[in-house]
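Exam review. A common question shows you a sequence with its structure tokens and asks you to describe the fold in words. Practice with the pair below. Do the first one on your own.
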Amino acid sequence: MSTKITAIVLNYRHRKDSCECISALKKSDLGEKIDFILVDNSPTPYNKKFFKRKFIGINYIPSSKNLGFAGGNNQGIKEALNKKAEYILIINPDVTVSKKFFTPLLKNFTDNKVGIVAPAISHKQKDGIYFGFEGKVDWSLAKPEHRNLKKNDSLKQVKAEFVTFACVIISANTFKKAGLLDDKYFMYFEDVDYCLTAGRKGIKSILDPSVVVEHRTSSSFSRPTGKLLISFKSHLRFINKWLRGSKKIKPFVNALLLYPYLYVLWTYHYYKYGR
């Protein structure tokens, strides 16, 4: 294989998940031919020894501190670009791929306008398994909305306003044109922001439902409400970055009302129904 692919796994206190993710990638169609970078947002001397012993030849990058999703992945992206990667996989450690993975996704790049390609993502909800597809932004509230369905009955690729970066392949040329992820988003909204930024450069984002990965949604928060403040800050940044003048007012008011409401609701459910 002449195409150089690098996979970046961002670890934060989920060593078991990271190992399972890398192991699944290695067993996939091109897994033994790609380079691996593990960026550790929760580094310890033991972690370094563990990962290097578990995965011989892995490029282990310890963060100086928890840099969040964008900041952590940017470390890996810069290293991959320095090593002349042509395509870069960004994948959450709690995502597991099947054997049919790289080859069908990479076929989408035969269109030279395509720079971002993501699979469908299966995930559990209370009433069963759902499939997450592409998303679009409700600009009246500056609110990203994913398409979630109980069935994945289409194999047709979809041009998307944005895709989730829980699992995504991005071409090196896209990073050269659109830059790195905006690390002022500590977590959340960075994938939406990046797809929009790339779109303004004429780069297409594609959702390919012929490939499905499993997302177990491991949490780094002891309580679900822990992520609300981070999401709130990211949402405000998104509004401020992408809207101008009076168009900001309604989204700002909505965010100021929505997040306190979610905090009360999630706290109620946490104490009533337990973890």
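Now try the second one, then compare your answer with the model answer below.
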Amino acid sequence: MTKVIIVQKGGILLSKNVNQLEPDILYKSCGLRSAKDFDHRYTWKNNNESYVSLYARDDGKANMENKYDLPPPLDSVLFFNKMLLIKHSSDEYDDSEAMDLTTGEWKSLYERLFGGFEDLKDETESSEEDIPLELRTKQGYSKADGFVVDDDEEEDLEYLSNGDDEILDSNDESEEYLDDNESMVDSEEGDKPDDSEDDSIIDDSDDSGDESELTEESYLSDNSYD
């Protein structure tokens, strides 16, 4: 029993134990009815002691394409149905030299064949180190362009903005209060008689008193002649 990898049409890797390892009957491990168009396609060097070969069908019906992304130089080649990956010790496949191939080992080789995948975490950490501390936000972004600010700064700006609005509102209320009081004062002053009106009333009463006294004297004088 030797472990091989069956690549499903959807790109899923399936580890499978196989007894019949002869090249001309490997198609049976993929569930194919015949060996038509099924053949060896490429061999990648795994290390100094092993190799991995691909067996696949290069012709097939529509909607039967295998969607798995193969490493170079097969990264742009289209294959159909299931594919088989098998490990062996010599550069050319011989069933007598077949070896177990695990999905973990293939994934490690797969990454190396693609030149390695970028580690986004390491890239983020290195980019943060390039930003000076005084220009770095809590999230690690740069404030040098002026478009990024800390959360605390945003809260301060929002507080100041709200504070200005409250101050303006209170000033407006104060102005309205003063206007109302001024109108009340004007109204009270309009209802109260001024000093000139009081003086005129007093003067009129005095004049009327004088007139009454003169009239009485003239009356006595006229009577004395009689």
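Model answer, second protein: Strands lie at 2-7, 13-18, 38-47, 50-57, 80-88, 98-99. The longest helix spans residues 151-191. Full marks require stating both points clearly.
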